[in-house]
């Protein structure tokens, strides 16, 4: 299964990707996570990416495409993957198509997550994640209301908020999505790959809708 999750920041791609990983055993490949890890490790690449991320702009295509090329070449990606946060503009989509054509492994589907603006604001402001295992929580959701510590890790580390989940940066990320990423919807629709789901409602409901549009595994 080779799929792309497409949707605005806060539309729930990362949360649902984690569920597909648990269900199908394919890796989640998130450029946001890979970039945050490079920033945390203080690598040269992380240093170059940090300013763009902090201001809500896209990191340079050459950096992100390089990261993806390397990641797709790793052993665990040979039987499929869930791409989350890539591609994010036309140049990245073209680069991905070229890479996949070269190895004869086309995408199976691109799933668009549809969520309204108010819900995006609610999700991003409530988003917290575990610094140890990366599990995403939301302090506004009924099942995790007011949660402060990870329940998946033994030590129960304190959950943290992403530095780019502040109001100003979120506004910029949404504008970038509208200008640069939204055009990919038509791009993939024209190729017959696009499946659209209503990504509002609780996490379980969205997972069910997602599974319903995926090609048979
Ligand atoms: P979200 O989808 O909530 O915006 P991500 O974790 O996917 O969060 O991305 C966080 C930031 O990382 C983006 O705002 C951007 O700066 C950078 N980034 C992630 N993926 C890409 C990409 N494919 N191209 C360029 N920049 C990216
Ligand atoms: Zn954890």
Percent of residues in β-strands: 5-15%
- The SS-based structural class is alpha/beta
Architecture of the domain at 2-115 and 180-213, according to CATH?
A: 3-Layer(aba) Sandwich
* Unreliable parts: none
Sketch the major β-sheet.
5 strands, parallel
Residue share in helix: 40-55%
Question: What name is given to the CATH topology of the domain at 2-115 and 180-213?
Answer: Rossmann fold
- Write the element-wise H/E pattern from the N-terminal end onward: EHEHHHEHEHEEHHEH
Structural shape: globular
What small ligands are held by the chains? Answer: adenosine-5'-diphosphate, zinc ion
Number of distinct beta strands: 7
Q: Give the strand line-up of the largest sheet.
A: 2-3-1-4-7
Main CATH class of the domain at 2-115 and 180-213: Alpha Beta
The whole-angstrom Rg is 17 Å
Mean pLDDT: 95
Superfamily (CATH H level) name of the domain at 2-115 and 180-213: P-loop containing nucleotide triphosphate hydrolases
Please report the distance between the alpha carbons of the first and last residues: 6 Å
Describe the structure.
With 217 residues, this protein is an alpha/beta fold. It has a domain of 148 residues: 3-Layer(aba) Sandwich (Rossmann fold), CATH 3.40.50. 48% of the residues lie in helices and 14% in strands. The chain has nine helices and seven strands, in the order βαβαααβαβαββααβα. It has a five-stranded parallel beta sheet, sandwiched between helices. A two-stranded antiparallel sheet has the order 5-6. α1 packs across α9 and α2 crosses α3.
